[in-house]
Design a protein that fits this description.
Pfam families: HATPase_c (PF02518), HisKA (PF00512). The chain is built from 12 helices and 14 strands. It has 449 residues and is an alpha+beta fold. It folds into 4 domains: 79 residues; 86 residues, no CATH class; 88 residues, Helix Hairpins; 145 residues, Histidine kinase-like ATPase, C-terminal domain (Heat Shock Protein 90). Strands 4-3-7-6-5 form a 5-stranded antiparallel beta sheet. The chain has a 5-stranded mixed beta sheet with strand order 9-11-12-14-13, covered by helices on one side. The chain has a two-stranded antiparallel sheet with strand order 1-2. Strand 13 and strand 14 form a beta hairpin. Helix 10 packs antiparallel against helix 12.
Length: 449
């Protein structure tokens, strides 16, 4: 964070410097133009209305209400100098303002100051009206200009604007280039981290601390990646070893239980118990096989044996196997293959896709104890094909639909659905799960080729 603060501080300092330079350029440009081409300014104060409001009644002067209000709003004192140079009327007159004036005195103060008081004057029939403001309140300076200079003001303003824009653009580009050069190595380092590559950034300059942290992070991530890879390899090998070791004793249990199940010397209850042993042993064998293949698929250790197959022909074979192997009466399988799907070819690992389809069919059978109708179909889509397995059973629980994009272990659905998702991921496709409004559930295996 210290390095980042340093970068920000330097950026702020550089930006402030740019702003200051622009201000200096503006001041120099304006001062140079003003000195070479002085302009003419006029008083903005309307003293005429106040002068007209001063009335002389039998030698007594007074301001009407309108003139008094305007006077109070703009001025602090006023006086009327008669034709003989004497002050004949005054209002709020300061003590340091004379009461008698010569022609020279009047000529001196009429445009600018009277004893440092900014004044404005107006001619009246009885003399000269003088309106004063507090000292230091108004700055007056004589400025004149030629008509040629005034006519050049638009071009001067245009040039002034272009100069400012050009200076701002150049300085902004320099700032951007500086930031780009400083931050580019950091960006490349972060990109390399994302790709799990080792990085070695230079640790000098304002970004040195951040670069050092990224270098250390790269080393840590590499070590962690190696440990994770070793752990995953060990776990996969352990699962494969257990699967292999359990296969032989499990086959013996299944063989002996099958013999006991058909042994006429046993009582029917004993034969039923032997049948249960055989069925549960078969279930254990299936679970161990599922665990083994799920582990291999998770860590991409399952090799793909790609070949072009007819998905319609594969689905016909799978459906026929279920029917021929004695699918019980509460269940039925129907195959829907459109005419254009018969000519479809799919580049895939046939054994894995076969496994995904049978897992879904087995899932429908296992979770609908009272029976269901299973529909298997294949159709073409613009980028490949879609194999769909649906049933009219009780549908998937919410957790299956919520986690449809991320393989997670679900207690009631075992590893079957996880394997389906991983097989589709391995083929660059995806499996979508839904419960149609008409009831049951539906899974679409989408292959993009």
């Amino acid at each position: 964070m210290k390095s980042l603060r340093k970068i920000i501080a330097r950026s702020i300092l550089l930006t402030a410097t740019i702003s200051l330079l622009l201000v200096v350029v503006n001041i120099i440009f304006t001062a140079n133009w003003a000195m070479k081409n002085p302009s003419v300014t006029h008083s903005k104060y309307d003293v005429g209305e106040i002068a007209d409001g001063l009335a002389n009644i039998d030698g007594t002067y007074s301001l009407n209400e309108t003139a008094t209000a305007q006077f109070n709003a703009q001025y602090s004192w006023a006086m009327l100098i008669g034709q003989d140079g004497n002050v004949v009327w005054s209002k709020n007159l300061p003590a340091d303002v004379p009461l008698i004036y010569t022609l020279t005195d009047i000529a001196t103060f009429t445009r600018w100051y009277l004893n440092d008081y900014p004044v404005s004057v107006w001619e009246s029939p009885d003399g000269l009206i003088v309106l004063g403001e507090p000292k230091g309140s108004i700055w007056k300076y004589p400025i004149t200009s030629t008509e040629a200079t005034i006519s050049q003001v638009p071009s001067y303003l245009g040039g002034f604007l272009i100069l400012n824009l050009g200076a701002a653009l150049i300085l902004a580009l320099l700032l951007g280039l500086w930031l780009y050069r400083k931050l580019k190595p950091l960006y490349e380092g972060i990109t390399a981290l994302q790709k799990k590559e080792t990085i070695l950034l230079p640790t000098k300059g304002v970004t040195g601390e951040v670069a050092r942290i990224l270098n250390e992070t790269s080393v840590v991530l590499k070590e962690q990646g190696k440990r994770l890879a070793d752990r995953d390899k060990t776990r996969t090998e352990w699962i494969a070893g257990v699967s292999h070791d359990i296969r032989t004793p499990l086959s013996m249990v299944m063989g002996y239980s099958s013999q006991l199940e058909t042994n006429p010397n046993l009582l029917p209850a004993e034969q039923d118990q032997a049948k249960i042993i055989r069925e549960q042993s078969q279930r254990i064998k299936t679970l161990v096989a599922d665990l083994n293949i799920a582990s291999k698929l998770e860590y991409e250790m399952q090799p793909l044996h790609l070949s072009k197959i007819s998905p319609a022909a594969m689905l016909r074979s799978i459906s026929a196997d279920y029917i021929n192997n004695g699918l019980s009466d509460p269940y039925s399988i129907s195959l829907k293959a459109t005419e254009d799907s018969n000519g479809l070819s799919l580049l895939c690992d046939e054994a894995l896709v076969h496994r995904a389809v049978t897992n879904l069919i087995d899932n429908s059978i296992r979770h609908n104890g009272s029976g269901c109708i299973i529909d298997v179909s294949v159709k073409k889509h613009p980028d490949g094909c879609i194999i769909k397995i649906s049933d009219d059973g009780k549908g998937y629980p919410p957790e299956v639909l919520v986690n449809s994009d991320e393989p997670v272990f679900l207690e009631n659905h075992g590893l079957g659905l996880i394997i389906v998702r991983r097989i589709m991921k391995l083929h660059g496709g995806k499996a979508t799960f839904e419960n149609p409004s008409s009831g049951g559930c539906s899974v679409s295996l989408i292959f993009n080729q």
